[in-house]
Amino acid sequence: MPLVDTHVHLNFETFAGDLDELTQAWRQAGVLALVHSCVEPGEFSTMQRIADRIPELFLSVGLHPLDMDKWSSVTADQIAQLAASDSRVVAIGETGLDFYKADDETVQREAFWQQLTIARRQGLPVIVHCRDAALATAEVIQEFQRAVGPITGVMHCWSGTPEETQTFLDLGFYISFSGIVTFKNAHQVKASAQMVPSDRLLVETDCPFLTPEPRRKERRNQPAFVHHVAAHLAELRQIEFEDLAQTTTCNAVTLFNLPKSLIFSSADADTFRLPTPAGG
Predict the structure, then answer these.
(1) For 161, which of 20, 191, 197, 224 is 20 to 30 Å away at the CA?
(2) Tens digit of pLDDT for each residue in 202-226?
(3) Residue 242 CB-half CA count within 13 A
(4) Whether the model pTM is above 0.90
């Protein structure tokens, strides 16, 4: 069944030596598309070179909230220009707020607002990183929607409470679960995963981080392992794996405006061919 890994970091050095082998592994696992998230604009050219080799790889561009040392008056323009320069860009991010060890909350809020603005202008969703900042993140999005207009996106690698989850669902956002949901003691994440409506649910690896069970002893996560995330979610939600896979693939296609050909029935699997992205 088809799967979309909606958050990967394949440009990291840990993948440099065997990316071709990993590509074959995720294809064999049914992963038909991936969204490559961006930590900071300087890595975008490397991401493009990888996407030139892998037709099912789509891109985002943005500045992570833990990289505010790279934020300046020209960063927003740089992100906007890069997003407009490549038709494989399907999102802005990852952006958001991270107050875990932050002393730059004001700058984070400014950068987040500016990236929401870019996404709104270019008609793209946002990929949102949120750590110890659910209330503030919701406040920024609410204020933006009131002052500027609608914006949507995904709360990636979600680990919030059911109450926080509902807040972002009410704002029109999708919720994406990573390997964290498979961890034995991730009780609130599992509770959140059970309550998300089927039409707002996504799966991801956030590789090379957060390897899911039962492969957790492997320090490097990889896109093929999104199958384990999906299988665990299906078990939690008491539905068939095939239904979970089809649903999350449809949701990824909808949110990121991916090729509609990614949505197909299991009967079509033998004849399906990977789509070539526009501009790819």
Answers:
(1) 224
(2) 999 999 999 999 989 898 999 999 9
(3) 5
(4) yes
